[in-house]
Amino acid sequence: MKTSTIHPVILCGGSGTRLWPLSRKALPKQFAPLIGNKSLLQLTLERLASLNQTVTCIASEDHRFLVREAMDNAQTQGRQVLEPVPRNTAAAMAAAALLAAPDDLLLFAPADHHIPDATRFAATVRSGVQAALAGRIVTFGVAPSFPSTAYGYIEAAEPTGHGTSRKVARFVEKPTAAVAESLLLHGGYDWNAGIFLVQARTLVAALRTHAPDILEACERATAAVSADGSFLRLDREAFEACRSDSIDYAVLEKHTDIAVVRFEGVWSDVGSWNAVAQLHAPDGAGNRLSGMGRVLHAHNTFVHAPHRPVVALGTEDLIIVDTPDAVLVAGVGFAEQVPEVVRMLTGEGKAEATQHRRVVRPWGAYDSVDIGDRFQVKRLTVKPGAKLSLQMHHHRAEHWIVVKGMARATRGSEVVLVRENESIYLPSGTVHRLENPGKTMLEVIEVQTGGYLGEDDIVRFDDSYGRDTAEAEVSTQQSATDLSVNA
């Protein structure tokens, strides 16, 4: 039975290297606090709430707790479909369609777009329902405001007869500047927003026609899906065997029954630091500031400084991005080349290329304050009622100092309460656990000492978050500065 109920599906993949150093592999741009101290994913969840309070998020296994935290912050509910490996949008959308009821009306929306007018966006989506229920794949175009070379374009043809939608004549890849100008002068072209409204059965049928290998792999991956609370894990072997391709190449460029609905509001895919700068109002000299950024005798300079004062003096045509452990200074004409910086730093083995100093975990977060020969200092923040895994380290001892709240510490066979300004010492080889029994955030300074401080020196005995508890010995080949977190 056809229904006009819209089921949002948020695509949370992508590494976001174009917004380094804020966005990194461990914390891509959709999860980073970017606008009003909210992540783009949280803003997307809030924007879609008027369409449906229950959503499905498709994300990497590595980012599952970031997705759940964003959903909690946005006060939305739903499930998280976890991809064991990235396989682009065609596979992600195929998996979502196969996990839905055939008549479900699915709205696929990227997690990293910024659309400030939620009311207008919801109305635009609803205007595409008739065409979607008629068996079309509905895409949404954005009225172009300038000849952008960063976006693909959609050429609209005659009306479909279903609401305000029009047939799609063709898709145009990201054009050169000259071609982009000619498209705007010609008229009838929209930016391709990469947002789709389609019934599950329609999408499955289109995949079966144009990309049967992707659909078959996803059928196997969803048939063997495993549930872990709100997490749904796709079968690894089947999904790894799937071809990686975008929905545009795999289906849309070959399909005929596609409609486009124009969105007249402000939209950005926040695809570069220049795009981020455009989200902030300029001063009289064209400078744009975020956080604690300041300028003096500067022109056309963007400063992103959320943590400390950063002053640009006498600069022109610059992008300055400050984070606790890395700073980017770039000419505005080089914003699209930021991924080259990430590749360079990765090749040099710099952890800052992919990891942040502050790492979010299901129980809270930790910030690596300092590290040296045979010691490391971290600031732990533990959510109310949360607890770390019951664990042991072979090569390091730990000293916990409570600076805010009250901790319940397990040390061997004893369990003690540690209050503010108190501490507890945990010798190497001791089974231990940190818990927050209170109703406010717990803050702890952790001092690690020992000959090996790598995060893989851990044996888990019990974990509340379904992570691996296998008693594997430490791999001494891993660097002590590796920031992959297992706490």
Beta percentage is 35-45%
Q: How far from one another are the termini?
A: 48 Å
Structural class: alpha+beta
Q: How are the strands of the largest sheet arranged?
A: 18-19-20-27-22-25
Label the overall shape.
globular
- The total strand number stands at 28
The helix content is 10-25%
- What is the makeup of the main sheet? 6 strands, antiparallel
Q: Show unreliable segments.
A: 469-486
What's the number of helices? Answer: 12
Rounded to an integer in angstroms, the radius of gyration calculated over CA atoms is: 24 Å
Q: Whole-number average pLDDT?
A: 91
Descriptive notes:
Helix 3 (88-99) crosses helix 7 (200-210). The strands form six sheets. Strands 18-19-20-27-22-25 form a six-stranded antiparallel beta sheet, with no helix packed on it. A five-stranded mixed beta barrel has the order 7-10-8-9-13. A four-stranded mixed beta sheet has the order 14-15-16-17. The protein has 487 residues and is α+β, with helices and mostly antiparallel strands. The radius of gyration is 24 Å and the shape is globular. Helices cover 22% and strands 36% of the residues. Strand 11 and strand 12 form a beta hairpin.
